[in-house]
Amino acid sequence: CQPVPKPESRMEVCDLNPCPPRWKVTPAGPCSSSCGLGLAVQLVTCVQIHQGKEVLQEEHLCPVAEKPLTSVPCVVRTCSYEWSFSKWSECSTSCGNGIQTRQDFCLHSLTREQVNSVFCRRFPKAIVMRGCSSGPCPEQVGTRSPGAELQPATPATHLTTAAAAREERYKNLELPLSAVPQEQTKTGGGEEDTARRCLLCVCGSLFLNATGIINMTGVESNDCSVAIGRPLGEEITLRILESSLNCSAGEVVLFSGRMMWRTGCRKLSLSLINSRTNTLIVKQRVVLPGNGVILQYNSRTATKKYYQDCDKQLFGPQGEIVNPVQLPDQRQEVVCRTFIDVAPQHRITIRALYTDLGTEGNQTHFNYILVRDVSTMKTMVFHGKQQFLWQSTGSQAEIEFHE
User: Which domains does the chain have, with CATH numbers?
Assistant: First the structure.
């Protein structure tokens, strides 16, 4: 090319459009708790690269659905405190039904010395009162106990017959009787035998029907739990048709969901409960045989969206979880969750078959798997290529996949 004149070398601007705004996250600050589960706050800002410099922008200019969490769970060390209990007291009555109690106190797990109970307030505490029976009173066998509200124990066959009569009363509501959960199978023996089996199997069951009636009266267990589950996008409304709980004896019923928690005893009849999400657990504690509640539940489309498009719901008894989830519009959420709910009498095991969250030098603080035990609200965080085995203490678990 030597004979040809050489043009001058010059640079031309190829694109004047700035890069789109994006989220910027500063490293997380100190953990809010010196032990146990806490939160670390991180600063999330919307920035835009303009001529090689970061320019702060208003948050609405960045994609809202992709905004990172402003706080992340953290654990500095395991707390050194735990609940301890005295032995159960003698039954409060010499015959018939009564109550047993025990004292709770907070211990330092290393020195075993008692400390102020405020140190244990973040940990779940076992029951401190339960029903007991000292056998029938000789002078009152087969009769109602005079004076006191506590009634003599009634044979289980009488309880189931009485509760079966309550079942008959609510058949006119044109709702399926959900005393036998959907996954339970009925075998012959007639309607009366079926009703009796229902009363024995209702505790610890998971109900997946869209509507039904649950009879928790006449059950043999002092503590009885049932769970109701529906697909994501629905919420559960529950009406208490009847309550025979003895409040003065310490009987109570608890309603708990991912976004609500309510307990009560007085004025329960015909009251309404809204789960606000697709799952609800009902826990009943009775002292007197035959007492309990009768519930009618329905499901409907949720009034507010409480989940992300990539969230999943599993009801068991087994399933497979794959992440990331590719949505139909080709986008990916920053944080996707999987909710696992099983029957209250069961527990959950999660085994990581394959994980790859980046190499040690490549991973960030925001690239991890978080597993939460809903009953205790304790969480475990897993990084890198750790293949873990996790087990729950209750019947509910949540998994969060970050980044």
Answer: 22-77 (no CATH), 81-132 (2.20.100), 210-301 (2.60.120.290), 312-402 (2.60.120.290)
